[in-house]
Write a structure and sequence with these properties.
Number of helices: 11
Strand content: 5-15%
Largest sheet: 5 strands, mixed
Radius of gyration: 17 Å
Distance between the termini: 29 Å
Length: about 300
């Protein structure tokens, strides 16, 4: 995936420590090395794996509140003392993230008014190392990237990228771009008024119903990430079949069924919060092929999940 033609976004808060985020080892975006990170389902493994699957802040969509509550406040406070550097970072991984974010801004600024008659208001993206705070609660590496609709920010510890590669073999520039675009997809859902409605419905239902709604939210974000990729490629002709395979491998790796099987040896469909591997790949592909957000409506009664 080529990123040279992508505009660099300035909507970034860099809260990483002086170590530059702790990158090292492994091949990341544009040959960048990434250092240890997250992804998961349960303590270290279990908390981590389900955390990835939580594309939206766990405090907001079911299944993650306990992850936030279990965070270490002292660790969060310590990290919070690091200075925030606004604007595009100058290091390689920060530049990669800023370029992907910039392309989401350029794409959605055109697509959302055209296809949904809504103005696009860009989110900010917070880069952090280990732990920080959001308006939705504590943000920790083990939770994976997430979107907080309260402050309308995406939170990302980029060491997560190496965890994708090391634990799941899901690395590659386009796969990392998909991760960011998925979280921005939640922001699009928020702008469309979907997230507040889902939260209200979750409060009224039981855990199984809340999980089912969360799955629809996550699959829609996968589809919206596909729409972004479709429009980006139309603008820059910068992805190929190998890039698509990377994204499909990433979507497959973080399906609820695969994560649960790895963590506990069996699958509990009623506890899914993000969808199976097959579902995640299918909805990413729908967006990638069609480039139409109207095809991403996973809340339609007749839609096949």
């Amino acid at each position: 995936m080529r990123i040279d033609d992508l505009r660099t976004s300035q909507n970034i808060e860099d809260r990483r420590g002086d170590d530059g985020g702790g990158f090292g080892g492994g091949s990341g975006p544009s040959g960048i090395g990434f250092g240890g990170g997250r992804l998961g389902i349960g303590t270290v493994i279990v908390l981590g794996l389900v955390g990835w699957a939580l594309g939206i802040n766990p405090a907001i969509l079911i299944g993650g509140a306990e992850m936030i509550a279990g965070g270490s406040s002292s660790s969060v406070q310590q990290r919070q003392s690091a200075p925030t550097r606004p604007g595009a970072p100058s290091d390689q991984v920060g530049t990669f993230v800023a370029k992907i974010l910039g392309e989401t801004e350029d794409v959605w600024s055109q697509v959302l008014p055209q296809q949904a008659n809504r103005e696009y208001v860009a989110p900010r993206l917070v880069l952090f190392s280990g732990a920080t705070r959001s308006e939705c609660g504590a943000a920790q590496a083990a939770m994976g990237p997430f979107y907080c609709p309260v402050d309308q920010k995406v939170y990302l510890d980029t060491s997560f990228f190496q965890e994708m590669q090391r634990r799941f073999g899901g690395g590659g520039d386009f796969a990392y771009g998909y991760v960011i675009a998925h979280e921005v997809g939640h922001h699009v859902e928020n702008l469309l008024g979907i997230l507040p409605k889902v939260q209200q419905a979750q409060r009224r239902g039981d855990r199984t119903e809340a999980n089912a709604l969360s799955v629809r939210v996550e699959l829609m974000a996968d589809c919206l990430a596909g729409v972004w990729a479709n429009k980006m490629n139309a603008r820059h002709n910068n992805i190929d079949e190998n890039d698509v395979r990377q994204a499909v491998a990433a979507a497959t790796a973080i399906g609820d069924d695969k994560l649960q099987k790895q963590a506990q040896g069996y699958v509990v469909p009623d506890s899914f919060t993000h969808g199976s591997s097959e579902q995640r790949v299918r909805w990413l592909t729908i967006g990638l092929k069609g480039g139409d957000i109207r095809q991403c409506n996973t809340f339609q009664q007749n839609v096949r999940l």
